[in-house]
Structure formats: C-alpha cells, structure tokens
Amino acid sequence: YFLFHTMFVGSLLLMLLVIIIYTIGLQGLGTLLSGLARNEFQAMEYALLIILPGLILTEAFWPIEALSPSLRPLVFLFPLTYLNRALRAIMLRGAGFSGIWLDLTVLSLYALLMLGLSVAMMKKRGYSS
User: Global pTM?
Assistant: First the structure.
C-alpha cells in the first residue's frame, strides 16, 4: 500500500484476519511436513512439491482463464487461491465478510484440517506432552 501507492478500499482488520487464518494453516502444514520427513532436506523437498505448483496454479501471477482447461480444476485445490481472491476482494473492491465468506470458510477449514492432521501425526509419533 505505502510502497506501491495502490488504492486500498477495504478493511485492514479483515485483511489481517484472512492472513492470520491462512498462516495458521501454513503452520499446520509445516508441522505436518516436518513430522513426515526423515530429515530437513526431505522436508524441503515436500514443501517445494506443494509450494511450486501452488504458486503456478493459484492466480497469483495470471488469471485462471490463461491456464489450460485441464488445469483449471486444480486451481481450487490450493488454499492460496482463496487467500488471493479474498485479499483482492478486500483491497480492491472493499468487500466485507459477505463478499469473502466462501474464501474465509475454505481457509478456516484448511487451517483446522492442517492443525488436526499435524496434531494427530505428532501424537502417533509420540511427541505429545
């Protein structure tokens, strides 16, 4: 906003909420991957297998219409798609909860799923206190 002098018309608090929910999901994913990997190099490989396709297929660099029709359904498997859509709606259109409810729901379910899976995996491996 300050650096690029872009127009921001939405709620900064709502944007922060969306980012925090997504970050919680990423933390769960990171914990899950670190628990599944045998060493740090394997964890980095797992992360790259998720991050790179996610960046390419999530409308971060080009619109979904620019993708091959066979790849378009994959866009909706990545939580980053919903983060991008929610942030774009908040920042550029001034959307509130009613405008991003689907994105917020998907991101919340992603966060809960990743945290749940990481806790279950850690308990299975004997890391519980």
Answer: 0.88
45/96 Cα distance (integer angstroms): 37
Mean pLDDT in consecutive groups of 10 residues from the start of the chain, 129 residues: 76 96 96 89 91 86 88 92 95 94 98 96 79
Q: Could you tell me the sign of the dihedral formed by the alpha carbons of 67, 56, 43, 121, in that order?
A: negative
pLDDT at 1: 58
Strands (E), the chain: none
Do the beta carbons of residue 106 and residue 25 sit within 8 Å?
Answer: no
pLDDT of residue 4: 74
Q: Is 2 helix (H, G, I), strand (E, B) or coil?
A: coil
Encoded tokens for 62: 């080009």
Radius of gyration of the chain from its Cα atoms, rounded to whole angstroms: 17
SS3 122: helix
In single-letter form, the type of residue at position 49 comes to: L
Neighbouring residues of 90: CB distance < 8 A, sequence distance ≥ 6: 10, 11, 14, 15, 18, 99, 100
Q: Amino acid identity, residue 19?
A: I
- H-run or E-run covering 49: helix 40-56
